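Assemble and predict.
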Amino acid sequence: MATGAIHDPAPTRGARRRAQTRARLIEAGRTLFARQGVDATAIAEITEQADVGFGSFYNHFSSKEEIVDVVVSESLEAQGRIVDEITAHLSDPAEVVAVAHRYFVMKSRSDPILGWLLVRLDVSHRVMTRALGERARRDLDRGIASGRFEVADADVAFLDTAGALLLVMRAVLDGDLGADADRRHAEGLLRILGLTGADAQAVAERPLPPVDSPRDATLEP
Amino acid sequence: MATGAIHDPAPTRGARRRAQTRARLIEAGRTLFARQGVDATAIAEITEQADVGFGSFYNHFSSKEEIVDVVVSESLEAQGRIVDEITAHLSDPAEVVAVAHRYFVMKSRSDPILGWLLVRLDVSHRVMTRALGERARRDLDRGIASGRFEVADADVAFLDTAGALLLVMRAVLDGDLGADADRRHAEGLLRILGLTGADAQAVAERPLPPVDSPRDATLEP
């Protein structure tokens, strides 16, 4: 937006060090939030784990909430890109949405650390409106534009499907749902989007596209 | 469950005082959480507002979270009873569920304090499985037993509808949805439960039963 800026100059040594410190803090935060939860993690533990001085934290983040937000946003962006890849070749908008939702339900089982971060609604509401929310909304709008989806109000339909996903993920994290939770949830969400029961079931039962990323190998059914 | 206990003896003076102090703390908590939010409320403020000594708090609650839980549970129990009353004469299970969901969406608009307490997922997940969750599950099971609802998995359908409601309430609290959000959400949830689009729309558009309680007069459409 700055009209005078053509491109960034090469970063100075100070700027590079600053970026490295920030990256170390984020990685330390991710590790600690994963291991012991957000609430139990003190800023001093993050700086200790990152091997930087306590005061440096505040050169990069104003609060623990801010680094939580960054960790979650970066994770979501990475997950969003994976889902984009595995759904790229699908021509049915209903299948795209079903696969995306099934991915996150199954991910809650295979990567509970990410799952727990996502279902903390105070955090997830903000991030939902960013990385994942934009993608989900794009997929929803495509289906509406093509006539595959039929909803009275796209905003409410978006929230209905996102909220349903969050609570199903939460129940998977609690160990309360069986192995077919992803398909049963996909069926329900496709009904919200106007598919008949039989159509929703058929799309929800389609085999998942392969997930190439090795770290997501646990998602294979 | 205590086999020897026929009935409770008349409470002693000490027990009555204890109950009064507890009630004062709960009322103070409700007022303060409503006015300034849970996070901004210190235990010392609750005891000050209740006009009891700071230490007394811990005779009744082990932590702030515990009193939050009690305040929310009592509010939910009261709301659950209101919804039971206004839906008691309805014969269509679909209308019962639609009215209950519409009530909570509209309530988020008319009573944002209650709304915010409910959508704090860390709290609401626990309470959802109690007062409101039991009622919602009962209504869902009735509709399934009568053949009005048709779902592949009742547990997942329950979570889909509850999660959808929470996120719609959250958006209403943020001022992001229009006045028909309750009807549009009811339509989506009835689709999850197997109603066709036209049927879901018709049920969601039915006039709400009158809400007698004066404090809920603001819910009238």
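Chain A touches chain B at residues 119-122, 125, 150-153, 155-157, 159-168, 170-171, 176-177, 180-181, 184-185, 187-189, 191-192, 194, 196-197, 201 (CB under 8 Å).
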